[in-house]
Amino acid sequence: MANVFGILTMIVLLLAGFVAFKNKERYANEITETNTQKDNLKQSQLRFKTAQDNLAETIAKREEVDGENVKLASDQAAQEKTNKDLESQITEKTSKRDEQKRKLDEIREQTAKIGDIKELAPKMNASKAELEQLAQDITAAEAKLANLTSQNNSVEGQIAAMKKMFDTISSGSSLPTVNTRIRSIYPTWGFVTLAAGNSAGVVGNSTLDVVRDGNVIAKLLVTAVEANSASASIIPDSIAPDTTLMVGDRVVPASKGAAPASN
């Protein structure tokens, strides 16, 4: 009977030790999981702060673009007014030229009837000189109008380009001219850094394609942008099968509807 009790006691002690070991292991796992969650929370807070800063920068850039648009619109209005003034001057000078020609024709008609060419010659010469001066003035005015029209077209082109750039930024997309490379890769954290920033047209929260040999091998989400660099998260499940991102891979704005290529 004592042996049975001893065996039972040993079994109970072994069970108690096993349960204690399992509880210790679970406690250690919970501590590890808690630390992981703390790290994830810290990273999320950092990304949130970066996104807020990037939004403020985008708003400031938008206000700057709006100011440029207002100035360009004002310049365009001034050019249009100048053009109208020149057109008015050309019309006036053309009218004077036609009037002088009419008078000259009348003088020639009267000369033909009267026959006193010596008396009318000085008046004819003066009218001819005035006509030539008016023609020169009209030619100069037309040349000036053409120059101002060219300047006006240039201003309109600048306005269109600024509007297109503003619309692209407002839509949350990077500019089509972006063509950069992966500068560094942090696979543990799931993000990369780029060799270009907002000065090259990279926009926060925009989607970019990683291209290799003409194929899209992964997609990135821009999380932070500086003047000459940016960081971007690797979009989960966007990396093509059997593919590893490499430093130097080309990065361009995401093409709508495109999917990563399979190897």
Describe what you observe in this structure.
Helix 1 (2-114) packs antiparallel against helix 2 (117-170). The chain is 63% helix and 14% strand. Strands 1-2-5-4-3-6 form a 6-stranded antiparallel β-barrel. It is built from 2 helices and 6 strands, in the order H-H-E-E-E-E-E-E. It folds into 2 domains: 1-171, Helix Hairpins, CATH 1.10.287; 180-253, Rod shape-determining protein MreC, domain 1 (Thrombin, subunit H, Beta Barrel). The two termini are 73 Å apart. With 263 residues, it is of the alpha+beta class.
How much strand content do the residues show?
5-15%
Which consecutive residue ranges, at least 5 long each, have pLDDT under 50?
Answer: 257-263
Order of helices and strands: HHEEEEEE
Radius of gyration: 40 Å
Overall form? rod-shaped
Distance, first to last CA: 73 Å
* Overall strand count: 6
Portion of residues within helices: 55-70%
Mean pLDDT: 80
- What is the subunit organization of this protein? single chain
Counted by DSSP, the helix tally is: 2
* Major sheet: 6 strands, antiparallel, barrel
Count structural domains: 2
What structural category characterises the helix and strand content? Answer: alpha+beta
CATH topology of the largest domain: Helix Hairpins
CATH architecture of the largest domain: Orthogonal Bundle
What is the CATH C level class of the largest domain, in words? Mainly Alpha
